[in-house]
Description:
The chain is an all-alpha fold. The chain folds into two domains: about 5-20 and about 135-195, Endonuclease Iii, domain 2 (Orthogonal Bundle); about 30-130, Hypothetical protein, domain 2 (Endonuclease III, domain 1). The protein is built from eleven helices and no strands. The longest helix is centred in the middle third of the chain and has 19 residues, at about 85-100. The radius of gyration is 18 Å and the shape is elongated. The two termini are about 20 Å apart.
Amino acid sequence: MTKKERTLAAVRILKERYPDAVCSLVYDEPYQLMIAVRLSAQCTDARVNLVTKPLFQKYTTLQAFADADLAELEQDVKPCGFYKMKAKSIKEACQRLLTVYHGILPNTMDELLTLPGIGRKTANLLLGDVYQKPAVVVDTHFIRITRRLGLTTEKDPPKIETDLRKLLPPEESSAFCHRIVLFGRDVCRARKPQCEACPMQEICPSRT
């Protein structure tokens, strides 16, 4: 199989296995997703959701986050780890959204990357989930699985993103990334991949 054929097969297989794949972070407003994704760095989505539920009840608007007492916000997000850095970037990102973008989350990669704490991975997720734009979210699951499938040999996330943009149908790319995360948790685990139960064993060159 060519890389393109293998990619299309993976898209089909994962769509069948996870038909309703969506982001596991819970939010109502676009800026809340931005905050939740920032908190998810080096932290599980499950823990982030536990933290953001009371957090979004306490800070009910974008302005509330922008005006938050930094020391208090640090304590509010402390369970997610790296809380000083995360709280600072969240407050500053919310301030920039208000002062530069009139409180509206930008819909381009270049603009999103001007927000404190926002890298390409987060920007891609926001573009895909908020604006339904073609997006390739390169997280640890995505890196591991696309390499195991032989879709890329790169290790650098931007290069992996470039490789997969050439292979993935644009309209499928964002959902495919969410499905990869679920697949990485369920089957294609980092230490003990469940190859014998894998629905992609027929197309995977790394199967054991």
